[in-house]
Amino acid sequence: MHLKELQLKNYRNYEIEEVSFQDTVNVFIGENAQGKTNIMEAIYVLGFAKSHRTPRDKELIRWDCEYGKIEGRVQKRNGPLSLQIVISQKGKKAKYNHIEQRRLTDYIGALNIVMFAPEDLNLVKGSPQVRRRFIDMEIGQISPVYLHHLSQYQKILQQRNHLLRDLGRRRKSEQEMMLDILTEQLVEYAVKIVSKRHQFLEMLQEWASPIHSGITKGKESLEMEYKSSVQVSDSADMTNMIEEYNDKFTKIKEKEMERGTTMAGPHRDDLMLYVNSKDVQTYGSQGQQRTTALSLKLAEIELIKSEVGEYPLLLLDDVLSELDDSRQSHLLNTIQGKVQTFVTTTSVDGIEHETLKSASLFNVEHGTATLIK
Fold first, then answer.
1. 363: region left, alpha or beta (phi > 0 left; psi from -120 to 50 alpha)
2. CA nearest 317: which of 118, 124, 48, 122?
3. Which of 13, 89, 23, 34 shows the shortest CA–CA distance to 56?
4. 81 and 96 in contact (C-beta within 8 Å)?
5. What is the DSSP string of 17-76?
6. Residue-by-residue DSSP string for 141-165
């Protein structure tokens, strides 16, 4: 798939902008605070219907404007596609081929995107929340129903936590009955989420291991493990998983009421990463952590291709300067000629690679992107 054209209106520091792209590599060059990352963010929002930089949609609207709009013309293997996101003070609307989508989960997945930014280097050394978000975002692109299950789980989790806080202050039998009902509902979605995460990580491992071995010239092996707050087997069926979750919640019920929070479930899980059988988060060097993060991102590209039949867009937001020559070359060699890529940088000086030599270059200044090559 390729993004042929992007139109912005009242988006961040862009009043009106229209940019056409080539199908290979497009590089945005400019000083900081000119709008390079805003273009990247707009493409990301077009795919995910939300920003990777802020949870507050209103920040995306240009100062003193009532709404902001992003439109994209996409070419997929089965034909052209028109996408539109409109953000206003009242909320957000998404259109797919000019038809408004009732739920955002029906919209996500139309444009597949992999983003690699400096903060993604924290994928390995950051908090479990960072890794859970990575897993959830990527599964959501290839399985929209997963996002629905996740949304339902989070709503029930919020209700359950509220009830647990109340029970911690004063206990009533009807409230404890309500807790049992919410626990049953929570478990129903928890097992669906965890089962899908296991499947996804199994596929990711298949792609990431050989990529990691290639980057390290066979000197290192990468393995991953899903660390669940409820001990369930990778091969357990839904019935057994439900039993395990119910047993866990029965055992920790009193403790949860004391603490006023849900102490087990997908929101407490983590992804463990091992290089040569050692926890790379704790024992890995910075170089090993960066190689692992890069391997996961490159694996993501191939996994999406294998699942949807087309390569996703790749967004490299100011990340090339964070990688040494070896990792930089491996990344650019991998994408060469097959993945439409968008790059932001303050300068291409020092990056000697055929991929960038044949790229379209845009100069970004004061909210305007001008094609210079």
1. beta
2. 118
3. 89
4. yes
5. EEEE--SSEEEEE--TTSSHHHHHHHHHHHHHSS-SS-S-GGGGBPTT-SEEEEEEEEEE
6. HH-HHHHHHHHHHHHHHHHHHHHHH
- Asked whether 297 and 114 are in contact (CB, 8 A), the reply is yes
Q: Picking from 142-151, 156-165, 205-214, 342-351, which range would have the lowest pLDDT averaged per residue? A: 342-351
Provide the pLDDT confidence category of residue 2 given band limits of 50, 70 and 90: very high
Q: Which 8-state DSSP code applies to residue 309?
A: S
**Is residue 365 within 8 Å of residue 32, measured between CB atoms?**
no
How large is the average pLDDT for residues 244-272?
Answer: 95
Q: Say what the pLDDT of residue 271 is.
A: 96
CB 55 within 8 A of CB 67: no
* Those residues with Cβ within 8 angstroms of residue 117's Cβ, 6 or more apart along the chain or in another chain: 52, 315, 316, 317, 318, 319
Residue 254 structure tokens: 């009193």
Q: Tell me what percent of the chain is helix, strand and coil, each rounded to the nearest 5.
A: 50, 25, 25
Q: Quick one: how far is CA 11 from the chain centroid? A: 21
What is the rounded distance in angstroms from the CA atom of residue 156 to the CA atom of residue 149?
Answer: 11
């988060």: which residue's tokens? 281
* Whole-number Å distance between alpha carbons of 96 and 336: 30
**Radius of gyration over alpha carbons of the chain, in Å?**
22
∠58-319-17 over CA atoms, to 5°? 45
Q: Give the strand order in the sheet containing 99-100.
A: 14-20, 2-11, 67-76, 79-88, 91-96, 99-100
Q: How many CA atoms lie within 13 A of 326 on its CB side?
A: 9
What single-letter DSSP state applies at residue 311? P
Q: How far is CA 229 from CA 5, 7, 265, in A?
A: 44, 44, 6
Token code pair at residue 72: 């994209």
In whole angstroms, what is the distance from residue 133 CA to residue 348 CA? 31
Q: Enumerate the H helices of 262-371 as residue ranges.
A: 280-283, 286-308, 325-335, 354-357
Tokens of 13: 């520091």
Q: Which amino acid is at 309?
A: G
